[in-house]
Input
Amino acid sequence: MPRSARALANNCYYHVINRGNGRQQVFHKEGDYSAFLDVLLGARQKYSVKVLAWCLMPNHFHLLVQPEEATQLNKWMQWVMTTHVRRYHKHYGTSGHLWQGRYKSFIVQGNEHLLTIARYIEGNPVRAMLSPTAAQWAWSSHQVRNTDSKELQPDRLPFPLPEDWSTFVDTPLTDTEIEKVRNSVNRQASFGHENWINEICVRLGLESTLRRRGWPKGRKRKE
Output
């Protein structure tokens, strides 16, 4: 199967996801989470990539990032993944695939859609019923945002967060909002207003992401 097209453009925002191979658990204890954050901190010193929101879950992670240059994202993620896998195997004395192949990344429009993705990312532990509130989950940008924590501090979004951000994140997204985010993930498509999506896909040659996956172009579906 050919690799999916990866959208790359300077100073764009990206929702980045990767899962454990076969959805296996990757983070087993607090030290595993901390070790991955240490890798992200190291990557911040090597590459010009802003991390605006992040959340580590037992078998996957979400990042909202903004590379200064398009080519930085691939280099940054390659360094993060390679460094983490090497340290993980050294610690546990294991070998083989840890992550589910290449990471996924989707361009996000820099308006209220950016806020939706940040909210989706930081609210993930609540939706998964791993934590009663986002603030009580230790491994996300929500807990350390606007604190003196030495963990990975998120970079600022291009606009202020709502004053009641914690309540906003803990409030469930609507079914429509959830479906739109998941469609972006499943189709590996850009996330934003429809006109903007069409424009960015044409500009970056990603028209294929506008079609539902798994159904050849031009072929009629039986009713």
